[in-house]
């Protein structure tokens, strides 16, 4: 079966019951009829901030859908200031596409939203993938380190600043990072997604800071999750430390943990082939 590369997929629109027009890309059904995999993007990210190599690898075996949540990129509305509202908005998107039960992969801020979706609507989520994630209420997550938010939270983020957060300083990781940037910014020329604006940045960072207010009791919420969960991170992530992946795996009853070597926040782009294979094995494993 011939598959269209993520770089060539058209931007589509779906109007949801909450009044929002969501922009999304859809690899389309595969012959196997697998449950759709919905992806939730990182802080300030839009459709074009996904590495096409990762999406193509994930989409070789199943339908993969990426989208801009409310107020992000090309989607209408105002970006919420809470992760919980972002989750309700994401649920509205999946309902607009009449997806039924889905698998969910959340990356960074998107992984916070993914946790909330699984808690709010557990019957909708068959399996959950949390990449570069942390639980709500964990100590040390009240905002990011100054050097991190200074690099990726400023009005203009340079390629070198991106590399410094998403990849390690080793030659191999930096080489992978530059290749990732070439794919993200060079593979798609026309019909690129709208850039996220400053209001979205402020709202998303408010949501991150609120998520990270220390509250030990909130950690216990994750014991409710009954679906299988795959937790993953790089071993040198400066944005969401690997410590939080171990914490998540200990709090979630049916969690599997993988830490990828010589990798930072962008481990899933650096190790896109291995990560996609691990996700595929996880999603195909019997429950």
UniProtKB/TrEMBL annotation:
Q: Which domain of life is it from?
A: Bacteria
Listed GO MF terms: hydrolase activity
Report the InterPro entries cross-referenced here.
Answer: AB_hydrolase, AB_hydrolase_1, AB_hydrolase_fold
**Record has Hydrolase as a keyword:** yes
Name of the molecule in the record: Alpha/beta hydrolase
Q: Which UniProt keywords apply?
A: Hydrolase
**AB hydrolase-1 domain sequence ranges:** 36-271
- On whether Hydrolase is a keyword of this UniProt record, the answer is yes
